[in-house]
Amino acid sequence: MHFQTTPGAAPVPRETAFILGGALLGGQDSAVDWPQQAISASLPGSPATALRETWLSASPCLSGESDGIVWRRSDDVLYGVIELAEADFADDARTPLQAASETAYRRIFRLLDAQGLPELWRVWNYMAGINAGSHGLERYRQFNIGRQDAFLACRRGSTGNVPAACALGLAGGPLSIAFMAGKIAAVPVENPRQVSAYHYPDVYGPRSPTFSRAALVHPPGQEILFISGTASIVGHRSMHVGDVAGQTRETLANILAVVAEANRLACTGDFRPQELLCRAYLRNAADHVAVDAVLREILGPVEVSYIEADVCRADLLVEIEAMASHPR
Fold it and tell me: Active site includes 119?
């Protein structure tokens, strides 16, 4: 597989049968015939109003739609997108977001089992008002309950070998989940500077987040490092509250620690910080200049896309995710 970013909403100039899936940052265009996650948010610092990210396959892909999931698979890799409106769960005994989250993940696991690709590698979660409260509980915590319930109900477990992931808040829209999965289990990677997210104390909610700090995955002929959404957290506590530059430095220290830990487990040689392709989420678009200066100072001239979005903790101002790949 090959990852590609192109400016604007126009389709990439490649035979569409070879596009596994992707995302449209900053836009709502849906006129494509592959699974595409639309992330409607501003792109600070970008001259383009939209960026299209695509995963390209070396061979034609099989397409399908199951339980509201639009998906494609190529060989032993599957990429899918599901969107659920919370209003459709208003009469559920659970909160609408909790019910939508559990439903989405149950459907994802059913699809993966049916396709014989049961290993969930990487997940991108977006929801409206992630830090807002409703039904007596912060919405991100409602999401975590629904997600973990689905993992347990589908016998996936909620610790250890769980996927890399991120969860961000947008101004509005449905619960949107994109995911990549395969036949071979991912190698989970944790961060020695942090408590594993699935072991957080209950001060952060009745259910811990279900994700690994990173994952090494092995599609045919490749090794990909997926680094989850990473923020200014040491142990389990938020650091440098109110200081976006300090939070960015701490975030990058965590990313470098994850890269070092991944390199102990990688089978294709060391991943270098300069190889990383990054998404940086900013609570305040005006922080772009300060965050970019720190990121360039520490990582160098890496490729980074900035997105205005709310981080999962109200006291965090920036979150960065990254990926890199090597041939096998």
Answer: no
Burial profile 163-201: b = 16 or more Cβ within 10 angstroms, e = fewer: bbbbbbbbeebbbbbbbbbbbeebbbbbbebbbbbbebe
Structure token pair of residue 298: 């520490």
CB-based burial of residue 322 (10 Å sphere; 0-12 exposed, 13-18 middle, 19+ buried)? buried
pLDDT in tens, 242-279: 999 999 999 999 999 999 999 999 999 999 999 999 99
d(CA 128, CA 209): 18
CA 227 to centroid of chain Cα atoms: 9
If we measure between CA atoms, which residue out of 309, 133, 155 comes closest to residue 205? 133
In this structure, CATH architecture of domain 2-327: 2-Layer Sandwich (3.30)
d(CA 100, CA 144): 11
Amino acid identity, residue 33? D
Whether 12 has a pLDDT exceeding 90, the answer reads no
Residue 83 to residues 23, 35, 39, 296: CA-CA distances in angstroms? 13, 11, 11, 34
Q: How far is the C-alpha of 123 from the C-alpha of 179, rounded, in Å?
A: 4
Q: In terms of DSSP H, where are the helices of 131-189? A: 139-153
Quick one: pLDDT at residue 28?
74
Domain ranges of the chain: 2-327
Query: Could you give the 3-state DSSP secondary structure of residue 281?
Result: strand
Beta-bridged to residue 82, according to DSSP, are 69, 177
Catalytic residue, from 86, 190, 319, 321: name it: 319
Provide the whole-model pTM: 0.97
What distance in Å separates the CA atoms of residue 70 and residue 194, rounded to the nearest whole number? 35
237-238 and 233-234 as β-strands: parallel, antiparallel, unpaired?
Answer: antiparallel
